[in-house]
Amino acid sequence: MGRSPCCDKTGLKKGPWTQEEDIKLTQYIRIHGPGNWKTLPKNAGLQRCGKSCRLRWTNYLRPDIKRGRFSFEEEETIIQLHSVLGNKWSAIAARLPGRTDNEIKNYWNTQIRKKLLQKGIDPVTHAPRLDLSDLSTILSSPQFNLANLLSLRTLVNPDVLRLVSLLASSSSNQEHQEMLLTNHINTMNQSPIQQTQDCYSMHLSPRSSQLLGKVNLIHENDGLYFSNHLVNFSDQTSQENMVPPFSIDNSVTLPSPQYPSQVSENWSFLRSDIENKIPSSQKFNFDSILSIPMSSPSHVNSS
DNA sequence: AAAGTCTGCAACCGCTTTCTT
DNA sequence: CAAGAAAGCGGTTGCAGACTT
């Protein structure tokens, strides 16, 4: 027993609406008002199914629809609401006068989603994506001097990179993101990183791999936190391309986040995650990290 | 200039929820 | 209260125009 169709589709038109059809629908609704979509097409002289008429009216012809580009404020509102409501487009649309759920959904899928990903934010959870494929986006910004990074022979602590990625992703300011990374890399260059017994291997996503040239990939669970996934990981298929294992260095220099309140939630989320996964001897001194003023980076040693 | 690829968006499809009888 | 109809909703598709090769 199949589902009954919303209407008898035989002889009904599909596809884009013509101006003539729009006029018929608009004039009919102007006189009779919307509603009873099943009988409307016939009464209005349209060869369309009622559902199609309703959609055309609610998404396009309604007089109170605001057309044109979304403003910055609208975009911010959508992001905020989406973080609370998820893909409840109609609920989001209800809070944005003049915008339809379809329009918001399209805008989300084509614009906002991309922007969030570029900032290293997971568009589904709105949490920072801490895998390095996102970091690669930051690294690939035209202003960022990749050559500096590639010339580094320093040991890179993956956890530090993720911390930087976190902070960078929490900022909507491109310059700030670059500064965070540059500060980090400068620090890595200057600090006498000591290799410890415990070594981490790090793999990068294909995108990062392309970018950085000589590193390979681990991509588990669509986003890596500071996790044991990374510990002693090795990829048998690409040993020759692997960078040497990274040392664990608990000395971290990071500037204060630009938006402390925004970042603090992320911190608490991450702290508990990290503290569960990383042995106590390798933990960061989070409080010290957060207390470092941006203008005067210094080293923090939690050991 | 032509062909191929990408992007944005209107419209559709099918499932769920709400309303009516 | 149940069943069927109507409306609502979100995911997906198809197409036109823009962009790239």
TrEMBL record:
InterPro entries: Homeodomain-like_sf (IPR009057), Myb_dom (IPR017930), Myb_TF_plants (IPR015495), SANT/Myb (IPR001005). SMART domains: SANT (SM00717). It comes from the Eukaryota. GO terms for cellular component: nucleus. The keyword Lipid metabolism does not apply. Keywords: DNA-binding, Homeobox, Nucleus, Repeat. Its main location: nucleus. Residues 9-61, 62-116 form the HTH myb-type domain. It is found in: Nucleus. This is Putative homeodomain-like protein. The keyword DNA-binding applies. PROSITE patterns: HTH_MYB, MYB_LIKE. GO terms for molecular function: DNA binding. Residues 9-61, 62-112 form the Myb-like domain. Pfam families: Myb_DNA-binding.
